[in-house]
């Protein structure tokens, strides 16, 4: 390249242009990929990617004769494959500026005969900007601050910067004005020994929710609510505890995951009288059931259908009965407990069930410590409508007891129950390998089994339902393995939307729970069957009435309580802080609704790597379905079809009227276990070896991930 051309190139790059020439030639049809992802096919071609900067002084390339001369020269170079061409010759200037927003791709297919021919416009056409909406901007700014839990100090700093822009001069000076923080909360807080209490209200909270999502209920419908009450320590250094009253809507599908705060107590200890804590809640519940409530112009009735709590909160707050260490403490049956090895246990597997009538008449005085105000709730059964929570019962109860029990635990127990260190390390190594294949729907990956004392409830759930049968195989004794298998299978049935509703499967799950308790008595002794393990005998009855285990689980409430804890910015007056944050959110919702616009299925992460199918328009690496996300990585690419085939997905393609997955079917599909029944009945398989050929299926053929 001559020196004259180099000078021209150097001048252009200093003015703000980075130009890269990618010359691809060869036999047959070559493929050229632009930076933006476009693919072109030609016999001998040149692809010029021009990245323009935002420098207002950059030259107009459309009328730049030097640039036209460069294109002509470059085209002549590309037509002669024998010429040695060094791209670094044209990038000899270090002072260039790039901008991702101005990346343009040209393709010349041996048609540039005249170097002075008109070039297409390479600058994007200016689109008319929408008129600036100050109120909308202010609303989005407030939404950002509230949803991100940004401190008032940082929001105020941002406001002071934004106000230097003339169009934003009318923004408030202080964050408290922007998000409408109340000046005082004294009128909303009342004394409740030994702390303070604020009642937000069921009606107010529901109106805000329905307004926020612009949802109109059916005329004269009954909205069913589930309620949770539990203690939440908010500090490790001082005695400071929340007792929130939470609820969620069980009868409207789109609201099942939304947890609402309807009351909050704070103090150094739990409330002295639980009836005082629940008084306003019960009074409003009665009124809303008898008189109804207007939600977006429609009159509805509100009914409390369940109260989900752990055992301590259930006995003290909800039922006013003996705690879980009492001899007659079981809320479902009249079996008397017994102390064995300093553990209150329930070794009998036959029992007499409690009834609502017996509870209200307090026929068994040893069971009660008072009269609960919840007996006033309309159509509320004190036995049936206070279901057992499997998060505390199975995950933090039975499974944790098997792994981390001080006496019977496989990891931290005592001989002969404790495993040798070699076996414990083998289990941890298997869990480490498994962590690479856990789908994204699980919030936590597997950790070493030596950390099982620190496991969260979701980790114990994953271990029982998915990991235990794989990582314990060949390590623990067969009797213990079968005992864990029994609990796994029973829980799998009760948690399944498909199987829990069949009476035969439900009875089978109940029999499995009974078998688990009976074999645990033989393997570990009577002191293993503490209150949590005993209550496994009753949990199938709750599933029969309320549906699968997740319908009355404490998992959503526990997740919300952690969010409640995280919004605190200091230890001083935590109750008042929550009130202010709640009123800020209420103000934000009143400014405009944010109805969900997400439509599924939709594809993301376009690519060009194949394999493809006939009629394929675009290829993607991920697709969001209504209940899961499928990706091309190993962890998220295996699905089961409605025809029961198990497929690994290698590509996601769109056609004119459908979305298809391209993959290979597993041909070696075997049951994971055969006793106490075949795992294939519940769609549990051990799969190996894929078919050598690809096939395609519509996403409508996918049963589940």
From TrEMBL:
Protein name per the record: DUF4218 domain-containing protein
Organism: Photinus pyralis (Common eastern firefly)
């Amino acid at each position: 390249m001559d020196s004259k051309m180099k000078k021209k190139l150097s001048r252009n790059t200093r003015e703000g242009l980075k130009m890269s020439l990618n010359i691809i030639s060869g036999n047959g049809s070559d493929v050229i990929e632009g930076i933006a992802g476009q693919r072109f096919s030609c016999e001998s071609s040149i692809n010029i990617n021009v990245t323009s900067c935002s420098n207002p002084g950059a030259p107009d390339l459309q009328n730049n004769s030097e640039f036209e001369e460069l294109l002509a020269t470059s085209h002549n170079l590309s037509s002669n494959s024998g010429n040695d061409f060094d791209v670094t010759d044209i990038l000899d200037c270090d002072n260039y500026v790039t901008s991702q927003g101005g990346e343009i791709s040209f393709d010349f297919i041996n048609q540039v005969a005249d170097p002075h021919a008109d070039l297409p416009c390479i600058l994007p056409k200016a689109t008319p900007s929408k008129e600036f909406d100050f109120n909308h901007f202010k609303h989005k700014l407030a939404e950002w601050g509230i949803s991100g839990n940004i401190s008032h100090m940082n929001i105020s700093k941002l406001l002071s910067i934004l106000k230097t822009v003339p169009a934003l001069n009318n923004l408030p000076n202080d964050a408290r004005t922007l998000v409408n923080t109340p000046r005082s909360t004294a009128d909303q807080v009342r004394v409740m020994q030994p702390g303070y209490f604020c009642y937000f209200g069921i009606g107010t909270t529901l109106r805000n929710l329905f307004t926020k999502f612009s949802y109109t209920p059916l005329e004269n419908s009954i909205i069913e609510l589930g309620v949770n009450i539990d203690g939440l320590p908010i500090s490790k250094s001082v005695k400071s505890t929340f007792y929130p009253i939470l609820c969620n809507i069980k009868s409207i599908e789109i609201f099942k995951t939304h947890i609402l705060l309807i009351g909050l107590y704070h103090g150094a200890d739990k409330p002295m009288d639980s009836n005082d804590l629940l008084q306003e809640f019960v009074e409003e519940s009665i009124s809303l059931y008898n008189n109804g409530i207007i939600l977006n112009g429609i009159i509805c009735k509100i009914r409390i259908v369940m109260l989900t709590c752990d055992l301590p909160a259930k006995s003290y707050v909800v039922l006013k009965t003996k705690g879980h260490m009492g001899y007659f403490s079981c809320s479902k049956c009249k079996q008397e407990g017994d102390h064995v090895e300093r553990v209150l246990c329930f070794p009998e597997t036959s029992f007499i069930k409690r009834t609502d009538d017996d509870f209200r008449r307090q026929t068994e005085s040893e069971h009660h410590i008072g009269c609960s105000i919840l007996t006033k709730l309309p159509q509320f059964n004190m036995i049936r409508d206070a279901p057992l929570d499997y998060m505390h019962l199975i995950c933090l109860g039975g499974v944790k007891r098997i792994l981390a029990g001080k006496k019977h635990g496989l990891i931290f127990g005592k001989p002969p129950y404790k495993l040798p260190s070699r076996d414990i390390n083998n289990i941890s190594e298997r869990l480490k390998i498994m962590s690479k294949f856990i789908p994204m729907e699980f919030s936590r990956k597997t950790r070493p089994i030596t950390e099982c004392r620190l496991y969260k409830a979701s980790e114990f759930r994953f271990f029982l339902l998915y990991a235990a049968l794989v990582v314990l195989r060949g390590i623990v004794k067969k009797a213990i393995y079968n005992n864990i298998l029994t609990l796994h299978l029973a829980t799998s049935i009760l948690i399944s939307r498909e199987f829990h509703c069949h009476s035969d499967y439900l009875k089978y799950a109940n029999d499995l729970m009974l078998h688990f308790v009976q074999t645990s008595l033989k393997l570990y002794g009577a002191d293993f069957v503490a209150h949590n393990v005993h209550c496994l005998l009753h949990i199938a009855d709750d599933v029969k009435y309320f549906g699968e285990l997740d319908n009355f689980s404490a998992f959503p409430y526990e997740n919300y309580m952690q969010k409640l804890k995280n919004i605190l910015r200091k230890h001083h007056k935590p109750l008042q802080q929550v009130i202010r944050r709640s009123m800020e959110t209420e103000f934000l919702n009143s400014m405009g609704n944010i109805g969900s616009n997400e439509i599924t299925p939709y594809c993301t992460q376009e690519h060009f790597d194949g394999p493809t199918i006939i009629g394929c328009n675009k290829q993607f690496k991920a697709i969001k379905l209504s209940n899961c996300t499928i990706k091309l990585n190993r962890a998220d690419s295996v699905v089961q079809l409605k025809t029961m085939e198990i497929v690994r997905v290698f590509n996601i393609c769109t056609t004119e009227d459908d979305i298809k997955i391209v993959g290979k079917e597993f041909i070696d599909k075997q049951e994971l276990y055969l006793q106490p029944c075949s795992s294939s009945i519940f769609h549990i398989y051990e799969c190996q070896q894929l078919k050598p050929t690809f096939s395609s299926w519509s996403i409508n053929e996918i049963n589940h991930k």
